[in-house]
Amino acid sequence: MDMIINEMAATKLQLPKKCVKVIIKNWARIFNDKLGWIDDFVKIIMKYIGVQLLKILQGHVGPVKSVRFSSDGHKIVSSSNDRTVRIWDVESGKLIQTFNGHTDWVNAAEFLLDGNTIISCSDDITIRLWDMISGKELIKIQGHGNVVRDLHISPDGKYIVSSSDDGTIRLWDVDSGQEIKRMVDHSMSVLNSQFSVDGQKIVSSSADETIDLWDVKSGERLKQLKGHSDYVTRAKFSPDDKYIVSCSWDKTIRIWDILTGKEIKILEGHIFFVNDIKYFPDGQTIVSCSDDKTIRLWNVKSGHEIQKLNVYSTVSGIDISPDGNTIASASQDCLIRIWE
Question: Which of 22, 38, 146, 285 has its CA 20 to 30 A from that of 176?
Fold first, then answer.
């Protein structure tokens, strides 16, 4: 494999080694789709060109809860138990901005589509909007009756969906901060909620061990998915909106068919709570993180683990850059790691 990479890098095109690795990864995925025998070959390739630690971002003084990329992939927003939200430049690793105002742990933060506004949620039972340039708080949203665990922006940028220990999922208008819809079904804390790619549905996961699928327009529950045997920490849509991937304190990752509501695959390998999960943009690979201090990459088709990254600290959250080439992880050791 080293010989192949070196030979390609020595051609007249003079491709950067990074580009050569991307090309080989794409070859592996194509062969996997077409031939179905490539699983062991992928593992061999990953030994040579697998995901590697690129840099570490330091600045938070408490465990980091979440990390999310901007839409252009050039910045990361992080949230922490130190009660701050921070913006980082991916290329340089430098801290760009710090937002102070939350009075308790900040559980999640995300960029709005304009790239200049940040939303965050906290144990202080608020959702806040921030101006990225000035660092000033723009709006404070109150309404939940308990800790706000997670939040996401709709694909059109008009709405925020939030989930809370009060057992509700709520929709908020970005411009006014007003609540426009409330969805209630879970019997315990709602740990995660997210819009589908087309913006027509919401998926939520709960400490009650279930996953709910909701219609955004009506606010009605469409399906409930059961199978996990402990808290369902995250549930997220595949890039084509055909599947949901979920992870749980039961140490498993599960893939569900949205149309039928049936569980179609269980991915096992983590040895402790699985905290976060996400599809790569191509829909062929999943990345997960866990209290077992690892990040793992999985082949969606086979369900097999492709690579395990040792972090040496509990990994609370992960995200993938829009181009699929970079992973960011948040961990309990107060650090953000960038992987490529």
Answer: 146
Cα separation, 33 vs 284, whole angstroms = 9
Number of folded domains that form the chain:
2
Tokens of 79: 């949230």
Length of the chain (residues): 340
Please tell me whether residues 232 and 322 are part of one structural domain.
Answer: yes
**What is the rounded average pLDDT for all residues in the chain?**
91
238 and 306 assigned to the same domain: yes
Place of tokens 């939350």: 102
CA distance linking residue 97 with residue 125, whole number of Å: 23
Looking at the chain, the whole-number percentage of residues with pLDDT higher than 70 is 86
Residues 44 and 115 in one domain: no
What lies within 8 Å, CB to CB, of 69 at 6+ separation is 75, 76, 90, 111, 319, 320, 321, 322, 326, 328
Q: Report pLDDT for 50.
A: 80
Paired residues of 23 in beta bridges:
none
Residue-range definition of the domain harbouring residue 178 = 54-339
Q: Are residues 10 and 89 in the same domain?
A: no
Condensed to tens digits (0 to 9), the pLDDT of residues 106-153 reads 999 999 999 999 999 999 999 999 999 999 999 999 999 999 999 999
pTM for this one?
0.86
33 and 68 housed in the same domain: no
Same domain for 121 and 66?
A: yes
The reply to whether 62 and 16 lie within a common domain is: no
31 burial level (CB within 10 Å; 0-12, 13-18, 19+) = middle
- pLDDT, position 58: 98
Residue 138: Cβ within 10 Å count: 13
SS (H, E, C) 53-87: EEEEECCCCCCEEEEEECCCCCEEEEEECCCEEEE
CA angle 42, 318, 324 (to 5 degrees): 50
